[in-house]
TrEMBL record, chains A, B:
Its EC number(s): 2.3.3.21
Database matches in SMART domains: LeuA_dimer
TM stretches of this protein: none
Protein's UniProt keywords contain Lyase: no
Species of origin: Methylomagnum ishizawai
Catalytic activity: pyruvate + acetyl-CoA + H2O = (3R)-citramalate + CoA + H(+)
Pathway annotation: Amino-acid biosynthesis; L-isoleucine biosynthesis; 2-oxobutanoate from pyruvate: step 1/3
Family to which this protein belongs: Belongs to the alpha-IPM synthase/homocitrate synthase family.
This protein's UniProt keywords: Amino-acid biosynthesis, Branched-chain amino acid biosynthesis, Isoleucine biosynthesis, Leucine biosynthesis, Transferase
Alphabetical GO biological process terms: isoleucine biosynthetic process; L-leucine biosynthetic process
Positions of the Pyruvate carboxyltransferase domain: 5-270
Gene3D superfamilies: 1.10.238.260, 3.30.160.270, Aldolase class I
Protein name: Citramalate synthase
Amino acid sequence: MTPDVFIYDTTLRDGSQREGISYSVEDKLKLAQQLDAFGVHYIEGGWPGSNPKDAAFFERVKSLGLKHAKIAAFGSTLRKNTEPQDDTNLQTLLAAGTPVITLFGKSWDLQVTDVLVTTLEENLAMIQKSVAFMKAHGREVVYDAEHFFDGYRANPGYALATLRAAAEAGADVLVLCDTNGGTLPWEIEDAIRAVRAELSTPIGIHTHEDSGCAVANALAAVRAGAVHVQGTINGYGERVGNANLCSIIPDLQLRMGKSVLPPANLARLTELSRYVAEVANLPPEKHLPYVGSSAFAHKGGVHAAAMLRNPASYQIIDPALVGNQRRTVISELSGRGNLLERSQKLGLDCSGEQAGEMLNQIKELEAQGFSFESAEGSVDVMMHRLQPTYEPPFELIDFVVMVEHRQGRGILTDAMVKVRVGEQVIHTAAEGMGPVSALDTALRKALREVYPDLDPVRLDDYKVRILDSETGTDAVVRVLIDTKDGARRWSTVGASPNIIEASWRAMSDSLEYALLNLNKN
Amino acid sequence: MTPDVFIYDTTLRDGSQREGISYSVEDKLKLAQQLDAFGVHYIEGGWPGSNPKDAAFFERVKSLGLKHAKIAAFGSTLRKNTEPQDDTNLQTLLAAGTPVITLFGKSWDLQVTDVLVTTLEENLAMIQKSVAFMKAHGREVVYDAEHFFDGYRANPGYALATLRAAAEAGADVLVLCDTNGGTLPWEIEDAIRAVRAELSTPIGIHTHEDSGCAVANALAAVRAGAVHVQGTINGYGERVGNANLCSIIPDLQLRMGKSVLPPANLARLTELSRYVAEVANLPPEKHLPYVGSSAFAHKGGVHAAAMLRNPASYQIIDPALVGNQRRTVISELSGRGNLLERSQKLGLDCSGEQAGEMLNQIKELEAQGFSFESAEGSVDVMMHRLQPTYEPPFELIDFVVMVEHRQGRGILTDAMVKVRVGEQVIHTAAEGMGPVSALDTALRKALREVYPDLDPVRLDDYKVRILDSETGTDAVVRVLIDTKDGARRWSTVGASPNIIEASWRAMSDSLEYALLNLNKN
């Protein structure tokens, strides 16, 4: 199947320009495999001339056996007043051995004179020679027209002349780049229609998020006839970021009716988004369209009720299409319907009296400062506890946490825990970086004696919020804990004027949840 | 000046639907003051019928003396087969006493029949009667046409009829809502042009981010003639979020040439964005267009070099226009000038060597997780400590904090403190609601023996933030403390992987600051 629009992923190159991202060669190879399995058509692997890591990537990616995606190497047109065979940059690009070469050149007269410091004519020659050289070596050439829209605004004739130089030299696609991210959708459309009236080479689009329109700009380009879209997974990129392919692909396919990827691949989008976040070592952004964990979460009472009557009321697509899922956020505002839905998922009975009891407990705890809307782990544990036959996997007897500052010794932190598991009483102690960490370590140490399966369960995120902070150190503290066990992840909550008690409650819910679900996979 | 486009802020209502946000009445009042000072034209305060907190807000906001913004109360049109005077929802809305009432009604036939479960005619009557009732009570009426674009797609005639019902009843503005967030910019434009051909009432726009186009959709609406834009600061909102006013306002003003706010107000946008994040207790999102700390950060080598030649190369605007700043990502130094200015205020010498020493200390502490931006108290104390003749008013020897959970006794918390004041060693203990409160109480008890003047000094606010929360309970904790002494108020900071140590540092800075300034009034 030939897609209506080709996806050119630059997560590995432009995406790595995001502040805080630094991929190893291994990371890039893992990402390339996932991107290929997902089905993007091109993977821009890096800029071989710019650093040794990228050169190593191009060497090693050849033996990965990618199935669908073509690998592209990125670099600039040749230096002014140079011939291709003497230009080290072009030679390095060639040496990367990729089927696709992406060359970027200047479209904006101001950039030619101020940054390249050369003549407008010489810039045209640089573009023409570079593209022709790569074509003569049998490569597919993607020509990235940097700053195209700024250039087109400043001097449309010259901007078009740069594209013509690339087209006549044989470029396979002309990618118009909104490098600064300041162009608006209708400006993109107008410019692309004007280019298409002059040139028959296929057109691509590369946008940035600086005015908040990166996705809309890419869509507007496709509407005007672009057939190649560049972007990154999760919108990672320099400054504010690149166009987010996790929004663009479902928009093109599900809202604009374009054929981009097989539907089965689209259903892996959420997984891919989280995988990339994981490798980038960034927390998955909850509020990304389509793939964020909040994308299909419903909090408002009115919305939650209407969703039960008709799911189309407040969701744009069936979340399964992109591999995501609907969530009903449980809070004091939720009704019985929300609870029922959740308990059915767990295979528990939570109707009638139990639902009433549970809503009362939630209300009472929320009045104390708990918040269940992002703590489904605690909600699930509470549902289990309400079952008449439930036996908790452990029970707290005592704990002591001690933080000491002793002159000359610095800070010392220890915790003691005594818990009952069935008939057994376990009494142990541990130290930690702080009081919560010491308590967590001691509790795990105690439970591991009976439940060795807890080993892979890891605390993944720990958040504290002071409620009504104006009451100073007596304020209620809410603690939210995220826990991970391989692929599963759950959140639990605790609240108290005492941070240790609040943490204890979230922590013990989390481990109780883990023990309830250990044998369920 | 009449703006080209009116900004209708719904941070307090729709924005609070974001998962994890839960504002107190105090929070909402503080936010309303900042939004007003910034210059938004309307502030939607909440849904008075839905919960007691919103009702309290409307009562108390009246005495705030807002200067520019009009306060709006939000609610639905009346119930089916009811008259306005018998409808509790409309009565509650009226009782909120706001100059503006925002009524939302159904535009989508499917929603009328499936969710309201009434006839299409009855829905028109509900809209007409509700709007007319509020107009008869002298209120400005904003009519929110929920699901307008979905409705227009399904049944354009009926969708237009609902708007006509509101317009003929006297609505001041008809706001077309893309409630599910699935509409694309050109669809928005086409629909608005069609509506404007039929009705002369001013048109507004309300968009959501579910397809990644919320900002572009709002801009497209203005291009098609909308003069009222609804959104939230930072794009907070249900599911993925609402249209982000922090992108829309600069786009309208700086890229589309619309007059929205005085330029001096626009320069406070970044500050406002971070203030709202602070009150929402969410970390400021670094990658927001215009206002994020990465929005004008340059990492790529090529970009950084080109920026030196010509700043327009890789930034869309001068960041000062929105109160943000350019950063080159390497390391950051605060200028000596800032320190000099502050030390002169204190009557201290902080030039030359001392300034260098101080900058080093700040850099080192910030790398550990401190943040001095909002902790001038700690900065002042640090300046005093660098004076060669400085003698600290007290010195810590030891402390111990103990939290115990004992079966049958609940939670017990005690702290012991040993400090030196001059030649005297004071050793005492206290209990508290939690470990930090116990330590604070013990320290004050010790110091009061020597410094009875500390009595009126009160801890006023205590905030905790987990940095790099992904490292779980070993993450660095930053504590910010606000302290009050009659009219004076100061902030201090501490950071450590141990929350008790972080709190101790902020707390002892705070009391040291108090003792330095006690005789200065």
